Amino acid sequence: MKKYLGLIALTVGFVYNSQGQSAAWSLKLSSNVELRTLKLTSKADREEKGLSGANIALYQGDKLVKTIRSSGSGDFTIEVPANGDFMLVVSYGDCNAKKFSVNTMGVPPDIGSINFSPSFGIGGFLMARPLPGIDYGILGQPLVKVKWIADRKKFDHDEGYTDKILDGLGRVAENENALIEKFIDAAKAGDDALKKNDCPLAKTNYEKALSLISGEKYPTDQLVKVGLCLKGKDDEAKKIADAAAAKAAAEKAAADKFAADNAAKEKAAKNKEAADKLAKEKAEADKIAAEKAAKEKAEKDKLEADRVAKEKAAADKAAAEKAETNKVAADKAAKEKAEKDKIEADRIAKEKAAADKAAADKVAADKATKEKVEADRVAKEKAAADKLAAEKASTDKLIADKAAKEKAELDRIAKEKANADKAAADKLATDKAAKDKAEADRIAKEKADAAKIASDKASTDKAAKETADKAAKDKADADRIAKDKAAKEKTEADRVAKEKAASDKAAAEKAEADRVAKEKPVEKETPKEKPAETKAEPESTTKSSAPENKDKNVIVPKQSDDSKEKSGKQKKGNSKHSIYRKL
Fold this sequence. Notes:
- The protein has 583 residues and is α+β, with helices and mostly antiparallel strands.
- Helix content is 62%, strand content 14%.
- It has helices spanning 159-195, 199-212, 217-519, 562-567, and strands spanning 10-13, 26-40, 44-50, 55-60, 63-69, 75-81, 85-91, 98-103, 119-122, 125-128, 145-149, 154-157, 556-557, 577-578.
- The strands form 3 sheets. Strands 1, 2, 3, 6, 9 and 10 form a 6-stranded mixed beta sheet that branches.
- α1 packs antiparallel against α2 (199-212), α1 (159-195) packs antiparallel against α3 (217-519) and α2 (199-212) runs parallel beside α3 (217-519).
């Protein structure tokens, strides 16, 4: 990052004539004013260009001596009167003003002659808007003090004072850069959060950036986007909540319908199974009853057929026996008829009566037996029918009771299942909502923890980097100061030695000339033609430029002009020193 301080170059030139004639003179100051504009987004863009219309005011105490304005390119030149203590003030709008102390007193009369035209070139003034929270107290002092240096016989700046001011300005620049870095970090954090659609975090960071440097356009514009983001988030959250509620209701309705359908299907299946089972059992019972009835009827028919056949055989045997008996009796009667017709007739009549009675008794007995068998059969059939009816009624009652019991059990199971399914669905919805909330809370916490860890790490890394950068800069500055001091001391020693040698040589030459003049006999002075008056050397109008040097803070000695040094007098020209920084 470019330092707040730019390059400043100080050059001074002056002349004097050897005739010692005094005249009014002024110190010509020339410089350039630039305006630095700072555009802050998630980076810092700086632009520096010549400033037209900057106010340059010259004060002597509280008195305004003169004021001018910078040109279109930012250049200006102002004449500082001789024999006074002045303050040059450069200002523009709400930018920090810059001061420059110029003391033109102390120039010896023999130097301040008619040909004495010193000039002083200021490398440049950089105008910038102050940043909040930065201490600019150092700008209340003159940034450079220029005065007549008697032992150097020229105008020059107070090097020790300038170095101290430059160090102070360096600290101001570091504070500005630190503030800008904090602003940029906050803006970048806001951009990153906005990219991740974390609207609250983006809002916090943009507001932090504005709290550091207020009035910046970028965070203000981004906050408008954050507002839209937050509104979208609220709308989205409402849509998500509505969608979640609708989904939960639909899922519950679907679960209820599914449970009801399953219960109905299971109930229908169980009812069908029970009905099928009852029908099967009834059909089985009817089949058993029919088979039993058929078997009993077959047994009954067989018994009846056997009885009829047995009775017929008995009847046929009885008839055969009766016929045999009758035949025997007839034969006997016929045989004995002759002997005993009457006895035989009585016996036959008696036997016939007995046989008729026996036959009648037998018929009656057979009839009674037959009627008893028939009554027993009817009673037996009735008892079997009654038993079958009772068994059927008992079976039907058992089946009906069992069907009713199974139906009641099915209804209870269906009701319990429906209640259990509803409770399970309600618990599932409750558990899902609780799980979703816990997951959202966990994600939010992890996100907050990650953001805090990232923020803490960024702060730690930044502090470590700033410490390392400061240590490196302090070491570089210490090395530069030591190097500059050694170079200045050597340059000054060389200059003093050279000036002493030149002074010793001039003194020796003057002593030799005085000795020769004393020893030379006095001669009458003959009139000679008056030499033409030597014209004063014209002032160089070329603006001196400092030699290039990669180290912008080093004071570099210029090449000395041997023609100036030989006479021991300071001629018109530029200073031997330059400082490379803008003020």
